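So, can you check what follows?
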Amino acid sequence: MSASFPNFGSRPGGQGQGGGLPSSLWDAMDQLRDAFEKGFSPRVAKGDVRAAVLAVLAEKPMHGYQIIQEIETRSDGAWKPSPGSVYPTLQLLADEGLVAAEESNGKKTYSLTEAGRAEASSSAGDRSAPWESFTARDTGRTSALPKAGAKLAQAAAQVGRSGTPQQVAQAVEVLDEARRKLYSILAQD
């Protein structure tokens, strides 16, 4: 996670030492970060990466990173396939003769072959695009809420690293109030 959020979770002087935050608060921040990393990832059905790649390439040739960005954009941020799923899928599609790759300026641009266009066309008629399967509730759970929580955790960590003891105490009060308000949202009918 530290690679995703630079300086997040770094603990000056070790756990609970030096930065003003007690170790229990660091532990709570770790738990919050872990919950957002693990608990809100969307479930993608088997074959969805393949279908999504075929669908976006049916519109225009793209390189791998563009494909990832396009799928993320179309799902309103709810689904961002990893390079570890997109690039092997592209290779498999190339092996099947559905995709052709052309290298230009050090990047491979992928486009559908005639067989790939036929496959994409038949897949499009069978079901909706994979990114359309995410409901509004899923979108909020998989993008907006975790991002807001991660930003809050980053801010708390920053106060812990560079704030005075009084500022840390204020931050703890703010976080406690935020926690109470979040639980009150769930208590509403």
User: Anything to note?
Assistant: The longest strand covers residues 99-104. The chain has seven helices and three strands. Confidence is low (pLDDT under 50) at residues 1-10, 12-19.
